[in-house]
Amino acid sequence: MAEPNVPDSEISEVFPGVHVLTRLLPGFGIEVSSTLILGRSGAVVFDTMCSPHDLGPVVDIIRSEGSYAREENWKLWVVYSHGDWDHCLGTAAFAQFRKPDCDRCVVIAHEEAEKRIREETQKELEELRKTEPGLVKDAAIILPEMTFKEEMSVYLDGGFGPEGVDVEDLDNRNARQKRVCDSVSGEIRLIHVPGHTSDSIVCYVPSRNLLIAGDVAEDPLPSLGEPEHLGKWVDFLETMADRVKLVIPSHGKPQGPELLRKNAKYLRGLRGKIVDLDLVLGQLNSEAREFYWKTHRQNIRCLSGSSTRD
Ligand SMILES: [Zn+2]
């Protein structure tokens, strides 16, 4: 289903109405993902990867699912987990839902993302056009049109998925058939969790016990950029580990909440200056191992104040 010019790309439905698209980042040995949540009254896309070509399968699903054409007030909420280049450069894929053709798409991010994208991501994109032109083919900077500081919610009225099915009902066929969702069941909460970057946010779907984590959780270890927020970041990971059943990181496979505990343990270890890196890295291919070994070294430097990010 993925476009042939996007190698090593795949999309899977991890929950009814929740699709995760991944692609390999060549030269890094890791993958990056974008998550689509479909509802009857609209859809949420969390992160737009590196190029509009990455998102062909997501656009296909939105168009083929049909509520876009049926529902008069249908809306597409595009959310940036943060302003790093691998998370926000494919938004032009949704041009058909945006002005001037139509006005059904709004881009949301944390209030600090706009400045970061304008100043840092723009430069990174220019560099990538020279070093990895295929990766950022037709990529464009599209700034957020709606921002928030601590937390905001988006509501997909009628619940999730084409049928508006809510998670409690998935094991119960009768309930599923009778299901009429109330508006709260479609709540999608966007929460500011700085630590990786100042503008990092997550997408928490309470009714599905689902956390779409951006780079706030990463497999096998997260990248620290804002050491002053380390304590709150760890607290958040530990709190959410008791609340959610499925975690979708931007780098790593969808998995259980153990990832949050593992990341929290790693960050605590970083602060306490004792990390068993072999245990943390586990079984990785050599390219990914090298990438995360460097990330770990960078985290130590960041914490000791000598550098924040490369
Ligand atoms: Zn990233």
From TrEMBL:
Signal peptide: none annotated. Gene3D superfamilies: Ribonuclease Z/Hydroxyacylglutathione hydrolase-like. InterPro entries: Metallo-B-lactamas, NDM-1-like, RibonucZ/Hydroxyglut_hydro. Residues 31-251 form the Metallo-beta-lactamase domain. Pfam families: Lactamase_B. PANTHER family: METALLO BETA-LACTAMASE SUPERFAMILY LIPOPROTEIN, METALLO-BETA-LACTAMASE DOMAIN-CONTAINING. This is MBL fold metallo-hydrolase.
